[in-house]
């Protein structure tokens, strides 16, 4: 995928509704690659995600509901936002039937909409570094705990299906110490906007 410019505004696919997320998280995650994520009109193409299933210990829901993760146990199609290492916000999309408590972590975007706002929020110009990590993209899109529990198919969120064929790469998840062998990280192979390249 070629680098984008300030004037690049790819056409948007059909809007993704909450029903899109009412499936196995390991099916939703690769289907999100190439989709467009916008928050108040700012965002871009999802190039990297990770799936987290309630049956494996890396998932926040593995040990049951808490005040922080309760939204994961609700119906699919809502945002789960949490603070990582006490520093960065991370945004997840809740998937599967109510009670399943599985979610997709959004790891990286290719910026396409609202670059000026992203650069202002991130205090940098390099388009490749604006959203190349889960904490970076939430800062660029202005996502905070105020977005936790919000529906993904209503403002300020807007999600649109991908409009082009892509090659989805898979690999192990990043920055975890449990269930490290599971190949539940997905991304656009060769993208210059990933948080970390996939093995060739």
UniProtKB/TrEMBL annotation:
<keyword id="KW-0227">DNA damage</keyword>
<keyword id="KW-0378">Hydrolase</keyword>
<dbReference type="InterPro" id="IPR036995">
    <property type="entry name" value="MPG_sf"/>
</dbReference>
<dbReference type="Pfam" id="PF02245">
    <property type="entry name" value="Pur_DNA_glyco"/>
</dbReference>
<comment type="similarity">
    <text>Belongs to the DNA glycosylase MPG family.</text>
</comment>
<dbReference type="InterPro" id="IPR011034">
    <property type="entry name" value="Formyl_transferase-like_C_sf"/>
</dbReference>
<dbReference type="InterPro" id="IPR003180">
    <property type="entry name" value="MPG"/>
</dbReference>
<protein>
    <recommendedName>
        <fullName>Putative 3-methyladenine DNA glycosylase</fullName>
        <ecNumber>3.2.2.-</ecNumber>
    </recommendedName>
</protein>
<keyword id="KW-0234">DNA repair</keyword>
<keyword id="KW-0326">Glycosidase</keyword>
<dbReference type="GO" id="GO:0016798">
    <property type="term" value="F:hydrolase activity, acting on glycosyl bonds"/>
</dbReference>
